[in-house]
Write a structure and sequence with these properties.
- With about 90 residues, the protein is mainly alpha-helical.
- The chain contains four helices and no strands.
Length: about 90
């Protein structure tokens, strides 16, 4: 199914549910606006990188895509650059 992530019930994750301490409905949901801000920045940077590559500006294209890659690696490490920018801006 191409839109499998939009399903409410995903049987692939049933073995992992046993590892949760509480029922999944009891967990507090994260705020949605930082996630949308992160997606917007990534979308703009990747779009600018794609346009740069299409125009033949390879150095600028690599810089934009590298920014998204570095932001992804720091997010894996636990520091969210886009959230830092958002909370400094507010």
């Amino acid at each position: 199914m191409p839109f499998r992530s939009s399903l409410c019930f995903q049987p692939d994750y049933l073995p992992g549910i046993a590892l949760f301490e509480k029922r999944t409905s009891e967990y507090i949901q994260k705020e949605h606006s930082p996630q949308q801000f992160n997606q917007l920045i990534a979308f703009v940077c990747l779009g600018a990188g794609l346009i740069s590559f299409l125009l033949g500006w390879t150095v600028i294209g690599y810089l934009f895509t590298l920014m998204v890659g570095i932001a992804s690696l720091t997010a894996i490490a636990g520091f969210f650059i886009c959230c830092f920018i958002l909370y400094q801006w507010e």
